[in-house]
Amino acid sequence: MLDILGTPAEQTTVGQIIDSIMRKDLGIDGQYYRGFPILASSDGPISLDALLCSKQYGVAIIHTVEGRVLDEDFADHVDEVHLKLCSKLSELKELTRARSLAVPVISVTFAPSVPEHEYAEIAEDIGLCRTEDDLLAAIKSQTLPDASMYEPTLSRLQSLSSLKSRKKRTYVKKSDSRGAVLKKLESKLATLDVSQTRAVLERVDGVQRIRGLAGSGKTVVLARKVAHLHSQNPDWRIAITFNSRSLKEQFKYLIKQFYFDANGEFPDLESKVNIIHAWGAPRSTGLYYEACVRNNITYMDFNEARNASSYNEAFSYACQSFLNQASEIQPLYDLILVDEAQDFSTSFLKLCYEILPTPKRLVYAYDELQNLGDSSMPSTEEIWGLDELGKPVVEFTSKSQDLILDICYRTPGPILSAAHALGFGIYRKQMIQMFDYADLWGEIGYEVTDGKLSEGNSVTLKRSEHSSPTILTGYNSIEELIQLNKFSSDEEQAYWIAEQIAKNIAEDEILPSDIVVIHPNAMKMRNEVGLLRNILFSKGINSSIAGVTASPDEFFSDDSVTFTSIYRAKGNEASIVYIMNAEYCNTDYELSKKRNILFTAMTRTKAWLRVCGVGSYFDGLLEEYNRVIENDFSLHFTYPTEAEREKMRVVNRDMSSSERQRVNAAKRNAQNLAILLDGEVNVEDIPEELRAALLAKLRGSL
Question: According to the UniProt entry, where is the signal peptide (predicted)?
Answer without folding.
Answer: none
